[in-house]
Amino acid sequence: MILKAESISRKYPRLSANSNFFYAVKATDFEIKEGEVIAIMGRSGSGKTTFLNMLGGLLTPSEGKVTLDGTDIYSLSDNERSKLINSNIGIVPQGQSGIDSLTVTENILLPYCLYHKDNEADKYAKELIKFVGIEDIADCYPSQMSGGELRRMAIARALINRPGIILADEPTGDLDDESTRSVLELFRRLAQDKVAVLMVTHDELAGNYADCIYKMDAGTLTG
Amino acid sequence: MFLRMVKGALTRQKGKMVMIAFTILLGASLATAMLNIMFDVGDKVNQELKAYGANIIVKPKDNSVLEDLYEVDGEDEIQSSYLQENEIGKIKTIFWTYSIVDFAPFLETTADVNGTAVTVTGSWFNHHLSLPSGEELDAGIVGLRSWWDIEDGQWLDEKVNPDGIMVGTTLAQTLGIRAGDRITLTTDNASKNLLVVGIYNSGADDDDQMITNLDIVQELANTGDLISSIEVSALTSPDDELAQKAARDPMSLSVSEYEVWYCTAYVSSICYQIQEVIPDAVASPVRQVADSEGAIMEKTQLLMILITILSLLGSALGISNLVTASVMERSNEIGLLKAIGAKDGAVSSLVLTEILITAVIGGIAGYFVGYGFAQIIGKSVFDSSIEMKPIVIPIVSVLIILVTLAGSIPAIRMLLKMKPAEVLHGR
Questions:
Q1: What is the pLDDT of residues B371-399, one digit of tens each?
Q2: Are residues B59 and B41 in the same domain?
Q3: Rounded CA gap, B152 and B178, in Å?
Q4: What is the mean pLDDT of residues B150-170?
Q5: Would you state the pLDDT for residue B293?
Q6: Which residues of B touch A94 (CB under 8 A)?
Q7: Which domains are present in chain A?
Q8: Per-residue burial over A40-64, b = 16 or more CB atoms within 10 Å of its CB, e = otherwise
Q9: What average pLDDT does range B194-199 have in this prediction?
């Protein structure tokens, strides 16, 4: 599975002396293949999350296109794109994300349940819970969990539909060193299973676990 | 899982959901009260107006023709023919028999009382009738002239006072008569000594007359079992175009129009049906009364509809604000759902299900509160309870669902525009 960005940029209206726009991400080419772990690093506001969101089908680029195995994801209708993302891209959002009324297991199963009515993913959910190391809190609710546990739950949720690509936004943000290592090791193991992992992060430690590191500065991506 | 999420949202946002349910409760209660009153107000207003007299008058056909020809009516009427007293009961055999509230026959003559010529009217007071249908009823002017003020004595009871008479207040003063006196009425045909049972004040020309049992006047006038007219008080529906067309000529109606007209309690169709059972008679509406009834009912119903619309609009605005606030509060959750691939329809249906469940709870509570409102209004305005019409339940249900959906539109639009990338990033 190949996720490819062709000259994608994102601009926002903002009046200034020289222009009516500013570019959060300038025209960028990018590609990630199965089994790769890529880290994009940069300061806050450099455009990392905007770039990741464009790759993940969550933010339409101002110019350029994003293709998943040759399919331009932004040429699809909203519903088609939602289904495509659900099946092929696992997203680990920034921050502590979870549906408060659902248990850990239910939160992890949620992406599967959006398009399936069967229980076939239950066994895999249990495996994922074990894989990310939160089996003791499988029946807990997000409000009862720590930041690291929530991040692991988000990773398991991103994996439930067996996607080819994981896009993680600051996956180690506000985690202690032990949790950070644990999450990064998890990504490495996923790469061994042919999953492509793209993470945007501040964390220098992430570089040790990545096959390739990019830097984002003022909307420009450099290798 | 869907239901777990709905339940979770309902319990987590308990305060907001209670406010939404309360807003819907207010709208539903007012709509329930107003619609029930609107459907019942016809009967109530009709019953109120029935206290002010008859709305149909039945006369012999020949007399009616003469009156039309010479353009006279009322006091100047030309009495050349009569109706049979035994035909009166037929009025209660028409299709709209249950709309006939009361009726009474009338026969007038002139008699001499202590050298003064007075007009004496014969009628029924509380005449007991046993109809061929098996129905038993009391009919007469006690009900038909219920607004008369009895200044001295009491209403004449036919069984207790077969030789009783009631005298109008003006005539009683002229002749110096009081309740309990006995007076003698003399005509060329007979002479009757009668007990004055009561002195009435009608506020109209009737105060210059006397009124007694019909059979006494028939004897004084030597008419046998004849009467000159019948006054009928009927519950009627307001006239519309169909009724006006039928009033001009029932034969001009198509078969389907005729059936609708015949089976609706228009004053014209009731008159027509009376003429069917008493062929020698012409039944005509007392237009002022019939028109007033229609106008009052239409205006009252319009008022009820306006209050219902305004209350529902208020509810829609309240729902709109509360649901929008709820969606904004949950933007992270909604953004996350979208980010993991939930379609807009699925997210919208989640929010709508929560709101509709709240609406059902608020609507049911509102119906019962509305029932209470309706009874309070019924007691204070009409001095009687309001009958709860089953048709109101589906109408209020549909209105509440529509209002809830309409009130949710701004929130759903906001939800559809919500970009997961922005809400998850805290923008």
A1: 999 899 888 887 778 888 888 899 999 99
A2: no
A3: 7
A4: 93
A5: 66
A6: 424-425
A7: 2-222 (3.40.50.300)
A8: bbbeeebbbbbbbbbbbbbbebbeb
A9: 95
Residue from the list A58, A100, A114 with its beta carbon closest to the beta carbon of B342: A114
Contact between chains at A86 and B341 (C-beta distance less than 8 A): yes
Which H helix or E strand runs over B427? none
With an 8 Å Cβ cutoff, is B137 touching chain A? no
What is the domain count for chain B?
A: 2
Q: Are residues B40 and B60 in the same domain?
A: no
Residues B21 and B63 both lie in one domain: no
Other CB atoms within 10 A of residue B249 CB: 8
Distance from CA of A113 to the nearest CA of B (A): 8
For residue B419, the chain A residues in CB contact (below 8 A) are: 58-59
Q: Is B14 on the interface with A (CB under 8 A)?
A: no
| The predicted structure's pLDDT at residue A15 | 67
B5–chain A Cβ distance below 8 A for any pair: yes
Domain's final residue, options B238, B261, B285: B285
Considering the entire predicted model, what is its pTM?
0.63
Same domain, B92 and B226: yes
A98: chain B residues, CB-CB within 8 Å: 336
The pLDDT confidence band at residue A199, using thresholds 50, 70 and 90, is: very high
Quote the CA–CA distance of B146 and B155 in Å, as a whole number.
Answer: 10
pLDDT band at B74 (very low <50, low <70, confident <90, very high): very low
Please give the order of strands across the beta sheet that includes A2-13: A21-33, A2-13, A63-68, A71-72
The size of the A-B interface in CB pairs under 8 A is: 81
Task: Give the mean model confidence (pLDDT) for residues A186-197.
Answer: 89
Q: Which domain holds residue B278?
A: 55-285
Residues B419, B387, single domain; the answer is: yes
Q: Where does a domain end: B259, B285, B311?
A: B285
Mean pLDDT rounded to a whole number for chain A:
88
In this prediction, residue B164 has a pLDDT band, given cuts at 50, 70 and 90, of very high
- Looking at the structure, tell me whether residues B184 and B268 fall in a common domain: yes
- For residues B371 and B388, the answer to whether their CB atoms sit within 8 Å is yes
CB spacing of B343 vs A85 below 8 angstroms: no
Judge whether A187 and A131 are in contact, CB under 8 Å.
Answer: no
Q: Is B40 found in the same domain as B110?
A: no
